[in-house]
TrEMBL record:
Pfam families: Cupin_2. This is Cupin domain-containing protein. Residues 15-73 form the Cupin type-2 domain. Gene3D superfamilies: Jelly Rolls. It comes from Nocardia acididurans.
Amino acid sequence: MATSVTCAVDPRRTTTHLSAGHRKQLAVLEGALTVLIGGTSETLNTGDAMFFQADVDHGFANRTNAPSEYIMVISSRS
């Protein structure tokens, strides 16, 4: 499954997830997106991408003054 997401500006809010048995790949189309995985964070900018196992606590936040748009591909381990 692939989806495009626009993350509104809200530096105080982090959306958290736990997706047992899944992998996620993100690609930032516009802006910046902070990705939190298992207690660490990394900021991705336009053109950056990341792949990770989604069976640990993880979340996403837009900590900038502009909207952020990214694509997420979710796949299951089978």
